[in-house]
Specification:
disordered N terminus, globular, 0% strand, disordered C terminus, mainly alpha
Length: 504
Amino acid sequence: MGQPQPDMGGMKLKVARTLKWNVIDKVASQLLYALTGLILANMLSPAEFGVVGAILVFQAFASLFVDSGFSYALIQRKSPTDLDYSTVLWFNMGMAGVVYVGLWFAAPWIMTLFKDAPEELVPLSRVMFLTFILNGSAIVQTNRLMKRMDVKMVAVSNSLGLFAGAIVGIGLALLGYGAWALVWQAVAVAAVKSGVLWLTGKWVPMLRFSWRALKSFLGVGMGMAMTSFLNTLFQNIYSYFIGNKVGVTSLGYYTQADKWSKMGISSLSAVITSSFLPVLAEYQDDAKKFASATAKMNRFTSYLLFPAMGMLILMAEPIFHTLFGTKWDASVALFQLLLVRGIFTVLTQLYANYVLALGRAKLNVHIELLRDGIALLAIFITLPYIALAPAMDITLGVRIFIMGQVVASAVAWIVTLFIAARLSRRSWSEYLTDSLPYMMLTVLILVPMWYESRLISAAWVLCLVQGVTGIVLYMLANKMLGSKIQSDAIAYFMHRGKKKSELR
């Protein structure tokens, strides 16, 4: 008799349920986050957002030290014990306490790092830093649920936390508490999320700590911690330099531009990674199929990426005017530049996935280090100009600073392109040919959209007309040219919809 077979039907059901709640979590979280951000952006000043943005630079690194990569190690371990979970929890809490005490005393020094920062930054930061303690307490609970593929309560806790944060933040903003509204909003989100997970997690930690268990996580944990450190560094270094050299008001304008640009770019990158990487991995031993798959994925990514980014860049001003009036006009050009950088970022990530799918993880680390090195070079070249802020154009220097990052991202894209092309046995010109038709179509649809901006003055009307024009013209043009990518994409989504209805 053979070994008992796994319950594939049960596994499929778990995967389907996990996928459903992950989608619900992402959609609900993004909607709540965007709506709350929209309301608060209309109620608070750029300087108030800038003060909190300065605090978030240190908050991000504190969170890294609290976790130290051990959460990834727990997920990777096949069968972690209660002692493993308890050890990681007590380590996280111990680190959180040490880091919090350190940052409490460092708060006055942190204030001196940012130009024109108010003295209020000190008490604001001391309260804000409570969030990484609260979030750290929920890491193990979250990991246990993810390990069991039971992410319903993770999604529920995220949504409840964001909802509570919205009530607290908007309520305090209405009462005139300024930057404190943003700080207590963050604390409320973390407290409610953590509280829900502890109340529903049905797990009580052991009053034990094992150095042996902790050491067993070091290999995976420290590697992931180093990767996370580099990512966090380059996500926050721009905020630090802007706040340090220019001031918290300009940092506030940058924070808004960065936040709204990232929503689209991060979502697109996540979709590409989750959708393409598993397929590519299946073809890694078949050079012909792998090359064919990369060509199709290049075209599909370009089909979505160029019109989405192109339309957002052109429509940036009416979008901001519709959402915020003229209050955040200084953010518009920064938003556009960050979207341009986002084009190169998405393509670079796509090509890096090709390298990863071929099992060249070490090479991918080298690519990441190269990208970071190019970004650092651009920072040092443009940093002397960052403080240029004439009265009529206070973000001039910041734009020059971000332009440097656009160029750095373009160079990183070129380098990654050549590496990916060589490994996938396709020429770099073939990669460019994959994208060129969609670039040209995007330029063509932007022409009538630009002309509409000369004729329509009302911002919300212009947004509506330009959006409809761009989408309709782009899809019609692809249909007329017989775009297989578009027909395949439509068929794919229709098929998924059909499969969902069959599962009911």
